[in-house]
Amino acid sequence: MDEDALAEDLRQSIGELVRAVRTVDSMPPGEAAALGYLDRGGPLTTADLAHRRGVTHQSAAKSVKELVGGGLARTEPHPGDRRKLLVHITDAGRARLRREREQRARTLNAAIRDTCSPEEQRRLRDCVTLLSRLTAHLAGK
User: Fold this and answer.
1) What is the C-alpha separation between 138 and 130, in angstroms, rounded?
2) By the 8 A CB rule, do 55 and 93 touch?
3) pLDDT (tens digit, 9 = 90+) per residue, 65-113?
4) CA of 140: how far to CAs of 56, 98, 115, 133, 134, in Å?
5) How far apart (Å, rounded) are the C-alpha atoms in residues 131 and 119?
6) In the 3-class helix/strand/coil scheme, how is the chain assigned residue by residue?
7) From 34's CA, which of 12, 25, 117, 120 has a CA 20 to 30 Å away?
8) Is the full-model pTM beyond 0.85?
9) Measured distance CA(13)–CA(61) in Å, rounded
């Protein structure tokens, strides 16, 4: 298998896996993504969220509005620029995100148990390290 084919097969397979696992999500993907960024990286502006998600400012603002309206996030004036707002995840937002992540993990775990032999599960575990290293490289870490 040439390198280009491996890269494309991997990209396609991981994309399909992520989409399949997300079918169990109970919240819109934009909102879940925004909560994830806030949980991992701390408070961000709407513009920062838009940039990280690769969406328009309008799209990110819509997600932020829904999150704030649902009590999953809150805003406060930016300390360095009072024209901007910082978006923070709330305790309720963290709890909701944790439930979403746990449901995804349960779904994936059940699929692994149902489709992979113990040996295949060990091989899959070894792949996690490789995938994490690839991700870190692509993210510039």
Assistant:
1) 12
2) no
3) 999 999 999 999 999 998 999 999 999 999 999 999 999 999 999 999 9
4) 23, 27, 34, 11, 10
5) 19
6) CCHHHHHHHHHHHHHHHHHHHHHHCCCCHHHHHHHHHHHHHCCECHHHHHHHHCCCHHHHHHHHHHHHHCCCEEEEECCCCCCCEEEEECHHHHHHHHHHHHHHHHHHHHHHHHHCCHHHHHHHHHHHHHHHHHHHHHCCC
7) 12
8) no
9) 31
| Total residues belonging to the chain | 141
Residue-wise pLDDT tens digits, 13-67:
999 999 999 999 999 989 999 999 999 999 999 999 999 999 999 999 999 999 9
* Domains detected in the chain: 16-138 (1.10.10.10)
Structure tokens at 55: 């969406």
What token pair was written down for 11?
A: 């990209």
Instruction: Tell me the two tokens of residue 39.
Output: 């949980």
